């Protein structure tokens, strides 16, 4: 798959949520705002909110219409649209048939439609104006491979929680890991079964920051007010509930009022009295029964005289954690005392705890450094084998606090003789198959309690060597794998270390994975726009590499500067680490180092590293410039990445007009009039312009070039702004870019473009009906094949399609048949690019 995402009229950012553990602290805190939130950034510009402070929202009709998911999405929209002190609004606008359209100024929510990295539950593409950060479009994609539920069980992910998170991205909030004491809605990861359907203080602060003003539940009217406006409780999970707290309600004398709890607090929060007249004192009570440790937040809402006032109630439920839950000691009867081991106690800061040892444990072999104290604490556990016969001794330590108890199991194994030990007892190694370079690991050989024992070691596997074959503890044993004669696959063997006398033996398990080698396809280094293989490369050009085992995972650069190591993959071009945009096992997208300009006219080497494995180096020619025009379907042909002056795409519905200004997006434009650091985005002020002469030809006519240089906010992407000739030769002119006489690939300005044909292979000697997918196709299109014009049926769905029957006369023998879309009603209109239909054998 050819992967390269372009954001033409605006800069964009993908943000989503992943499945996984929730640490709440492992993140850079430098971007945290005072309220505990972070803003999306576009290049170096922070989000500044969306004009109008609202999005019209469309749901995927096939998956989210008139069902529980529909209701969950509406609830998430309402949660963001009712934040006190913010004017932000999400408004339901209808149902979406097909895939989301970028740049339409609406939020479209769909199932699928995006290539999801491993572990990602959902993602939102938010686009903004490069210079201001003002959001102009957001679309959300849910991973169809994930088990979502509106009423999740332990193995499901809560659809409403993930939708609430993604809508936060849509209005401009980023992940806030490390900004707040506990995970909130905008935490970057979430576990199965977890529900967060109410906003936390960082979210309400963030939406109020971006969209200040009235909206949501009011802060009072007609003289109604609640004081204080926020109350917090703390307690231990599984322990006693904290004491109630009071709120002062100011209401005009004689005015009736009613108090209620928002949906997020139904199972833990209550308020009394629930109604009354005039001023009152409200008692707020929380319960912790059945609640897991975590942070809970809800609102007490009072309505009176048509007005509302609210107070935010939070509950920080701390767990009592005792780690580890088991301790194991070993000793020799009558021998040395083992080193003590520690138990870590955490819970509510300053809360007291006590420790007791089970009565079954003999008090003469186990002791604690302390039996009482306050959280947090570190308690040392001591054991002694003195007077104990060989055997296994067990005890249980109980730590109690606030009605909650936790146990630690302690086991002491007393042996009669020192035993041989090998550490680690399991070794896993991986390396390239057929490699002649040994891959080694070290094992520590020791005797229990530091005993000096003579030992010998042996293995029966021919691919594993053991050195030395014998020794005396403490010592080291080297294990080396030789993969020279191994094919790719998994191998394992046992190494037995045997002590002299009664010291026993220890078995070491050795596993080796012989991995396929890293290789670059023949002609696999290509221009990322034209995908033309085996062409010279230029400094600063966007390149695509195709091959096998180029990376061990799929990963995309998170921002600027672009990294030189992405997912464990690296590329050296001319000995210089290239800046990486995207890596996968079969493809890498990168920006060629600018320093290649110094060796233009010669050749250099390119090597891909997947971890410690390196591909054979390939030689590539180097040129001053290597222009290529990006295409809408990333196939190097057909409709190019051409936009009107307002940033919308040039296409059949919106063709170029004579004399209008338009932009063409390219790469390989050559040296610029200012130095840009590798991996950094091009500046908007001042613009970086191309040094060499740049021509833009439309059907052979020169367009007036207004600007040619680096596209602001991107690395490696070039932009040419020009004025179309007047008159234009044809509606969809053919475009070629020439830089200092070097020509790019040929594309069209909005012309018909084919992506593929299905089925891709047909049997010979029989009629075959196939479907061609594409864009910018005319409803009156036909299909040209081997000089024959074939009628076709046009359909507009997720893609434009042409259904055509190929007669058996054109499918007589195995081979390849080129197909192109043409418009008989407009014979002067250019035909599309071709796609190949394979004719197989019987």
Describe the structure.
There is one protein chain. The chain is mainly beta. Helices cover 4% and strands 45% of the residues. The strands form 15 sheets. Strands 61-63-66-65-64-67-68-62 form an 8-stranded mixed sheet, with no helix packed on it. Strands 6-5-7-9-8-1-13 form a 7-stranded mixed sheet, with helices on one face. Helix 1 (68-81) packs across helix 2. The protein starts with 10 loop residues before the first strand and ends with a strand.
Summarize the structure.
By secondary structure, the chain is mainly β. Strand 3 (41-42) and strand 4 (45-46) form a beta hairpin. Helix 1 (68-81) packs across helix 2.
Gap between N and C termini: 29 Å
Supply the helix-strand structural class.
mainly beta
Taking pLDDT < 50 over at least 5 consecutive residues as the criterion, the unreliable ranges are: 1-11, 21-27, 215-221
- In one word, what is the shape? globular
Number of strands: 68
| Count of runs of 4 or more consecutive helical residues | 3
- Share of residues in helices: under 10%
Mean pLDDT: 89
Beta-strand fraction estimate: over 45%
The strand line-up of the biggest sheet is 61-63-66-65-64-67-68-62
Q: Give me the Rg, rounded.
A: 34 Å
């Amino acid at each position: 798959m050819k992967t390269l995402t372009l954001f033409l009229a605006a800069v964009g950012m993908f943000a989503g949520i992943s499945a996984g553990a929730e640490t709440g602290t492992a993140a850079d805190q430098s971007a945290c705002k005072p309220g505990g939130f972070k803003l999306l950034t576009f290049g170096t510009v922070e989000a500044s909110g969306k004009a109008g402070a609202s999005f019209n929202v469309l749901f995927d009709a096939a998956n989210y219409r008139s069902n529980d998911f529909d209701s969950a999405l509406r609830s998430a929209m309402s949660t963001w649209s009712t934040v006190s002190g913010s004017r932000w609004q999400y408004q339901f606008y209808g149902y979406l048939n097909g895939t989301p359209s970028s740049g339409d100024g609406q939020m479209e929510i769909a199932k699928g439609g995006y290539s999801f990295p491993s572990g990602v539950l959902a993602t939102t593409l938010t686009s903004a104006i490069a210079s201001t950060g003002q959001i102009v479009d957001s679309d959300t994609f849910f991973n169809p491979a994930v088990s979502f539920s509106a009423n999740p069980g332990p193995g499901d992910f809560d659809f409403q929680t993930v939708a609430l998170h993604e809508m936060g991205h849509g209005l401009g909030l980023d992940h806030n890991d490390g900004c707040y004491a506990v995970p909130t809605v905008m935490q970057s990861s979430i576990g199965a079964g977890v529900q967060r359907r109410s906003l936390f203080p960082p979210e309400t602060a963030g939406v109020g920051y971006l969209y200040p003003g009235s909206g949501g539940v009011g802060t009072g009217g007609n003289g109604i007010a609640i004081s204080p406006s926020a109350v917090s409780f703390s307690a231990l999970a599984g322990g006693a509930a904290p004491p109630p707290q009071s709120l002062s309600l100011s209401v005009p004398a004689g005015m009736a009022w009613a108090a209620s709890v928002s949906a997020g607090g139904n199972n833990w929060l209550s308020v009394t009295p629930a109604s009354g007249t005039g001023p009152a004192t409200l008692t707020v009570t929380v319960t912790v029964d059945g609640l897991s440790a975590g942070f809970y937040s809800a609102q007490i809402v009072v309505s009176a005289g048509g007005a509302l006032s609210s107070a935010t109630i939070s509950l920080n439920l701390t767990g009592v954690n005792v780690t580890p839950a088991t301790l194991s000691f070993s000793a020799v009867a009558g021998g040395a005392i083992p080193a003590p081991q520690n138990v870590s106690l955490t819970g509510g800061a300053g809360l007291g705890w006590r420790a007791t040892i089970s009565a079954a444990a003999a008090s003469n072999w186990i002791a604690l450094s302390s039996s009482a104290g306050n959280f947090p604490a570190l308690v040392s556990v001591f054991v002694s084998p003195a007077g104990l016969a060989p055997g296994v001794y067990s005890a249980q330590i109980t730590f109690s606090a606030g009605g909650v108890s936790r146990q630690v199991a302690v086991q002491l194994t007393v042996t009669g003789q020192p035993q041989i030990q090998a550490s680690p007892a399991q070794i896993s190694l991986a390396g390239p198959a057929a490699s002649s370079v040994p891959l080694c690991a070290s094992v520590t050989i020791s005797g229990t309690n530091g005993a000096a024992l003579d030992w010998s070691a042996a293995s029966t596997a021919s691919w594993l060597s053991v050195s030395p074959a014998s020794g005396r503890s403490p010592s080291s044993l080297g294990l080396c794998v030789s993969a020279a004669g191994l094919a790719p696959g998994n191998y394992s063997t046992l190494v037995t270390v045997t002590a002299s006398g009664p010291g026993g033996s220890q078995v070491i398990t050795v596993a080796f994975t012989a991995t396929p080698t890293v290789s670059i396809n023949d002609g696999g280094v290509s221009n990322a726009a034209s995908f033309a293989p085996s062409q010279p490369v230029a400094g600063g050009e966007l390149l695509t590499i195709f091959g096998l085992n180029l990376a061990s995972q799929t990963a995309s650069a998170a921002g600027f500067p672009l990294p030189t190591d992405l997912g464990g993959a690296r590329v050296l071009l001319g000995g210089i680490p290239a800046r990486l945009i995207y890596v996968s096992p079969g493809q890498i997208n990168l920006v060629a180092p600018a320093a290649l300009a110094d060796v233009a006219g010669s050749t250099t080497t390119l090597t891909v590293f997947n971890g410690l494995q390196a591909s054979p180096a390939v030689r590539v020619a180097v040129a001053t410039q290597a222009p290529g025009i990006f295409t809408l379907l990333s196939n190097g042909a057909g409709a190019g990445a051409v936009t009107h002056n307002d940033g919308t795409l040039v296409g059949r519905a919106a063709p170029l007009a004579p004399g209008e200004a338009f932009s063409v997006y390219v790469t390989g434009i050559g040296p610029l009039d200012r130095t840009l650091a590798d991996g950094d985005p091009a500046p908007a002020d001042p613009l970086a312009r191309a040094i060499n002469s740049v021509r833009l030809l439309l059907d052979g006519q020169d367009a007036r070039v207004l600007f040619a240089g680096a596209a602001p906010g991107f690395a490696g992407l070039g932009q040419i702004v020009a004025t179309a000739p007047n008159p234009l030769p044809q509606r969809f002119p053919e475009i070629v870019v020439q830089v200092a006489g070097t020509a790019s690939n040929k594309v069209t300005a909005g012309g018909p473009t084919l992506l593929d044909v299905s089925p891709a292979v047909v049997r010979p000697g029989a009629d075959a009906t196939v479907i061609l997918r594409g864009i910018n196709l005319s409803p009156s299109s036909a299909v040209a094949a081997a000089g024959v014009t074939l009628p076709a049926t046009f359909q507009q769905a997720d893609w434009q399609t042409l259904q055509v029957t190929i007669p058996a006369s054109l499918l007589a023998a195995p081979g390849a048949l080129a197909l192109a879309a043409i418009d008989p009603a407009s014979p002067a209109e250019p035909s599309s690019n071709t796609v190949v239909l394979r004719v197989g054998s019987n």
